Amino acid sequence: MTNNLKLKHKLIISYLVVVMIPVLLVGGGVVSYFRAQAMERAIAQTTNNVQKIKTQLSNMMRMPNDVSNTLLMDKSLEKVASTHYPSVLELTKAYLSFDSFHRYINLYREIAEIRFYYKNPTLINNLELVPVDAQIESTYWYKEAMESRRAIWQYIDDEEEIPIRKLSLVRQVNFPETHTSGVLIVSLDQEELNRMLRQEPFETLIADERGYIVAAKNPALVGSTLKDLDYGVNLNEQGKGAHKLDIHGESSYMIVDQLMPEAGTSILKIVSIFDTASIMEDANKVSFIGLLIIFLVLIIALFFVYIVSFLTTNRLLQLSRQFNRLALGNMNVVSRIDGNDEIGQLSRQFNYMVDSIRQLMDQIVEKTEQNNTLELAQREIKLKMMASQINPHFLFNALESIRMNAHMKGDKEIANVVRLLGKLMRKNLEVGREQTPLKEEIEMVRSYLEIQKFRYEDRLSFEVKVDPAASNMMIPPLVIQPLVENAVVHGVEGKIEGVHVQLTVELCSQVVRVTVQDDGLGMTSERLAEVIQSTVNPEESEQKRIGLRNVHQRLVLSFGEEHGLVISSEYDKGTQITFTVPMLNGVV
User: Fold this and answer.
1) Beta pairing partners, 502
2) TM segments (predicted)?
3) Which of 14, 166, 208, 517 could form a disulfide with 187 if both were Cys (CB 3.0 to 4.6 A apart)?
4) Which CATH class is domain 465-582?
5) How far apart are alpha carbons 218 and 215 in whole angstroms?
6) Contacting residues for 444 by C-beta, under 8 A, at least 6 apart
7) C-alpha distances in angstroms, 451 versus 131, 193, 422?
8) Around 9, how many Cα atoms within 13 Å sit in the side-chain half-sphere?
């Protein structure tokens, strides 16, 4: 799909797909991550604040509990409360001599007041010792205290002449000597409770088990109930944890925790509420600035990509025109594109290629005559000569393919094909070596396949699999390329839809196994027998299978009969050729 696009458009589209879109997506993801992190930090901070309030409240409530434990054993309280006084004077003297409540109130600033309710008609209510009447007996807190021996924490909101209206500890006090009981109330100081919540950044409140607000960041809420709050939800039904909800149409979070006081049965609920808009405001501002900067940088980068692509394509067009002149037969063409980048190097390689082609065309006849006069008696000379037989055949085909394609298409890809051809030509000039590293042979095969891919286009596909452990193995030169050439030529010519060629090099025990396989037309059993016979035929007059015979005889001469070519084929399914090279051959 991209082959029909201009290079300039490819670069711009690649930039958009590979850089711009991913960066914007990642930027959006980072923004979302930072927003989520800001929200999580706010929830964590609020949860920590609620936990801190819970700890402070627990410490504050410990003092009234300790005081109540002490008063349970206070004989002076029992005496002053249970004595029946004949006169007001005696009662006054008893009140003046009893200072336990005043002492604890002065000693602990958390305690606002202490009251003791007892059924003694001779007592007078002095806001410390209070006689129990029918109204007090009917109150919720009095009934609950008389039914339980454990301490109860609740907001006292009764209709006394001077009401308490504070969070108070309520518990039953028994007098063993008289077998009677009274109710002790120790109230916390409201200002101390409110001061604890006043420094909180969000709306925070504390409610007792019945839903009465006993302390709040907003003191005006103290004494009201959770049901009175216009939050759109029933706070009494919210359990512990963080809850997301809408309050007055705004997205908010509610952090709820519970506290069961020491030696008590009541549960206090701590609630902290904050809206997400206030948390997200700074995060949104930073995110917007960050995305704006990223977008501006990407736009500037896109402009530079366009400029670079424009300059690059202009130079490539100049080089393409030189290739067109070469394709038309002008062997004196010279490319004058300057620069040290890849295009400048390609221009210099083009000039080198033109000179090399001109020289090679002059030397082909002379080289062929020299190869025909080599003596075949000695093994080394025979190996070199058999290797050299392959080069002219492929070189002429490759040159003709390049010339015809360049003439008909004027394709820019001619530069890459010529580079590959130059690499093949240099390898061919080195064929005089007895052995070459496997990786160099594979590199030459890749170059050959790329050139043939250029020639046959979609009719040819290939795959090369090489075990890295065998890359430095030494093998005779030009033993793989003829097999690949055979698979390509006969596969493409035999099937209209083309051929797929697969080269596999794998390390098996003490040998390196090389397999060339194609899915071409294949051969019948009779034709396969003829091909196998031609590879072992000592006579060299047979020209149709000279490449296979050359490779087979070189392998047999070098490594023995067991390492020669193994050919298998099935008509209309393809052909497979395999040979092995022993590890004793050595590694570079």
Assistant:
1) 463, 517
2) 12-34, 288-311
3) 166
4) alpha beta
5) 8
6) 423, 424, 427, 481
7) 113, 87, 11
8) 6
